Amino acid sequence: MEWKTPQWFGAGKRRAQLDRQVDATNLAQFGYRQMPTSQKVDWVRRHFNRVAPRYDFMNTLLSFGIQYAWKRAAIRMMGLSPGDRVLDVCGGTADLAIMASGRIGPQGRIVVYDINWAMLQAGLPKLAGKPAAHRIRFVQGDAEKIPFPDNTFEAAMVGFGIRNVTHMQQGFREMHRVLKPGGKFLCLEFSKPVNPVFRWLYDVYSFYVMPFLGQVLAGSAESYSCLPETIRLFHLPDEISAILQTIGFEHVRYRRMTNGIAVAHVGRKLNKAA
Fold first, then answer.
1. In a domain, 24, yes or no
2. CB 246 within 8 A of CB 168
3. Tens digit of pLDDT per residue, the chain (274 long)?
4. Which of 177, 182, 183, 237 is the most buried (most CB within 10 A)?
5. 234 in Cβ contact with 14 (< 8 Å)
């Protein structure tokens, strides 16, 4: 295993991940690896095919279980209501959907939407025998081409997945499109820790401990070195807020969690009737 040097990239490198720059160069990043945009979906698919069988176990272990606190806090920030129809983009193994199901009540519905069928399959058994099972359905598809009509959902969310979408802004635009006016939005994603000392410890853990555990417990050091690489290329919270506002979300705000390891952005689709 070749260990990578921890590096948080500057604004220029982050801007190179925006849709216009990706299209202009026809190049996309998946971690530190650069490739033609047409190949990124396959790289992402292969990555999640490898990690899907132990995805929940490894995420719980590597985050010391804190990921569940992040997800619960983010769901609370959304302010879901009974009867809401919710789209969970890049929904994977359905953690966010299951947490949200208790807030939307028996009349609410959730679509877990993900391009990777292996991830959806890993989430299906978690619903077996649970009351929420009839509220949640799984649909495979591309976050850049969501196959639902305009103004369908009262809420849309994406958790720890948007940074893997080739055209991130297009993914956000699609979520905005399928939301009803006034609809609620959530993006929960990894980010850059605020405190320099904490950040240094996080870098050591991310680039040395995580790949080692990935090799020993999941048989793939590469998969768990790619994860911290993608995080270090991702946009900072203020940048994400500006992108969301440009797309048409209003009342955008964010909350850093665990010194900024994770950040939850929430907002609403502009209510044109208001």
1. yes
2. no
3. 344 556 799 999 999 999 999 999 999 999 889 999 999 999 999 999 999 999 999 999 999 999 999 999 999 999 999 999 999 999 999 999 999 999 999 999 999 999 999 999 999 999 998 888 999 999 999 999 999 999 999 999 999 999 999 999 999 999 999 999 999 999 999 999 999 999 999 999 999 999 999 999 888 888 888 889 999 999 999 999 999 999 999 999 999 999 999 999 999 998 764 4
4. 183
5. yes
224 assigned to some structural domain: yes
| CA 65 and chain centroid, separation | 17
Dig out the tokens for 208 from the structure: 């040395």
Residues 6+ apart with CB under 8 A from 46: none
Place of tokens 């870098």: 203
- Contact between 179 and 244 under an 8 Å Cβ cutoff? The reply is no
The whole-model pTM stands at: 0.94
Closest CA to 168 of 5, 73, 28: 28
> Sign of the C-alpha dihedral, residues 239, 242, 246, 251?
positive
Residue 55 sits in a domain of what CATH number?
Answer: 3.40.50.150
> Going by C-beta distance under 8 Å and a sequence separation of 6 or more, which residues neighbour residue 161?
89, 90, 91, 92, 114, 143
Q: Which domain holds residue 174?
A: 11-269
- Assigned domain for 18 exists: yes
Domain count, the chain: 1
Give φ, ψ of 197 to 5 degrees.
-65, -45
Instruction: Give the DSSP letter of residue 206.
Output: I
Tell whether 3 is covered by a domain. no
